[in-house]
């Protein structure tokens, strides 16, 4: 468990990140990790067969590209939950700061291996 | 499942709330609900035996009073996860807007019944 005895400041945790598409775990609530990530450009098309994934924008704008559905554009203070089993590929024209909520078991890019793929161990 | 096909704007969802201590479910990620709540004053001492509960401040300030531990003061952009089995009682001197993340099974005030207690059905 990653529960801590003090508040976690999301902006401060985001500020520690130096690499795009490299999520950091900053908390845990039940079986879900809370992560922050800075993203720019696109990740890779992938899906998580059994897990939903929540994207919340802290600053900037991200477009969640979905297979067979309209793009979802998220701005500051907005979130979207990519349902399990849905092919998706996030894209940000300019740097965007995100909070992610996903199962502790969720792999970064699903079963797709990409040069951008990070393991959970990388994120802890 | 409460997953929707469009972004959810947290501030807009908070603006719909007319009553303090009356959380509204605005999303679901895996087995966790995402809720918003406006709080002012104190709730009631209670615990959730088997479930953590995340409090994230959107505006204002909330103090999470904990049994046998220092109060946790949360300001905008900060979160704290109350570990399962921990007696707690949130308090806000002025109105505070919160995002809560908790298991779909979590009861509002644990096993404590208070005039402020809301059922999950109230929140949907």
TrEMBL record, chains A, B:
Organism for this UniProt entry: Paenibacillus nuruki
Top-level taxon of the source organism: Bacteria
InterPro entries hit by this protein: Cupin_2 (IPR013096), PKS_Associated_Protein (IPR052044), RmlC-like_jellyroll (IPR014710), RmlC_Cupin_sf (IPR011051)
Domain Cupin type-2: 41-94
Pfam families in the cross-refs: Cupin_2
Protein name: Cupin type-2 domain-containing protein
């Amino acid at each position: 468990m990653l529960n801590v005895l003090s508040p976690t400041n999301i902006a401060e945790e985001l500020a520690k990140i130096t690499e795009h598409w490299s999520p950091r775990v900053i908390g845990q609530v039940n079986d879900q990790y809370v992560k922050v990530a800075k993203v720019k450009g696109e990740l890779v098309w992938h899906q998580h067969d059994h897990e939903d994934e929540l994207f919340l924008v802290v600053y900037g704008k991200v477009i969640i590209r979905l297979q067979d559905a309209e793009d979802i554009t998220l701005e500051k203070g907005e979130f979207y939950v990519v349902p399990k089993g849905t092919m998706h590929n996030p894209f940000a024209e300019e740097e965007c700061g995100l909070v992610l909520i996903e199962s502790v078991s969720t792999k970064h890019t699903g079963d797709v291996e990409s040069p951008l793929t990070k393991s959970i161990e990388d994120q802890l």
